[in-house]
Specification:
By secondary structure, this protein is α/β, with parallel strands linked by helices. Strands 1, 4, 5, 6, 7, 8, 9 and 10 form an 8-stranded mixed beta sheet that branches. Strands 2-3 form a two-stranded antiparallel ribbon.
Length: 198
């Protein structure tokens, strides 16, 4: 059985550590960071793609229209990542696995996203959690099988889905890759100083 996978791009963060402007619009390789992330996700061909944005972020809502992806405004995004995750999980089809993509991770290779999606589509169970690893460390994006939808909808706070992963080690599938981009998020301006990844 092939499982369908929806991508949930989390783009509703407050950028507090980055400075005065929305870090997702910082240019990387000549284009705003969030555009690069959306383009890479779409190139990997998920079944659907959703972008969770803050309720006040009209710019990203309009950007989603340009890419024909669905923007999901999240009124309580400032209360923690779990609220954005819940908004994305609520919007996606109930039968889809959910691939969680962080909007501030622009250096993940398209081939990595493809591998993660393919592994999730071919999983034996709706409860499988697919996670990429590089040099023994877990990274992003992570796919939660459709069987975890209720658990994602019950998340609270700012820890995201870490507890869900920790509570279900037997359901986790590791995909080992040579891609340091799965660890590289952009939290502060100096995070941009390392060479870019293809």
């Amino acid at each position: 059985m092939m499982h369908e996978v929806s991508a949930i791009i989390l783009a509703a963060g407050q950028s507090r550590r980055f400075g005065s402007h929305n870090k997702l619009y910082t240019p990387i390789d000549g284009k705003p960071m969030i555009i690069g992330v959306i383009e890479r996700v779409l190139a990997a061909q998920p079944d659907q793609c959703f972008v969770v944005v803050s309720a006040q972020d009209k710019e990203t809502v309009n950007l989603c229209l340009d890419f024909r992806v669905t923007a999901i405004p999240c009124a309580d995004a400032s209360l923690g990542m779990a609220h954005s995750l819940r908004a994305g999980a609520h919007a996606a089809p109930t039968t889809h696995g959910l691939m969680i993509v962080l909007g501030d991770m622009p250096f993940i290779r398209i081939s990595t996203i493809e591998r993660v999606i393919t592994t999730a589509r071919n999983a034996h169970s709706e409860n499988t959690i697919v996670m990429p690893f590089h040099e023994g460390r877990r990274g992003h994006p992570i796919v939660f099988g459709a069987g975890h939808r209720a658990n994602l909808l019950a998340l609270e706070g700012d820890r995201g889905a870490n507890n869900l992963i920790a509570d279900n080690p037997g359901q986790c599938t590791h995909v080992c890759l040579n891609d340091p981009g799965i660890h590289r998020d952009i939290d502060r301006p100096y995070d941009l100083e390392s060479p870019t990844e293809v």
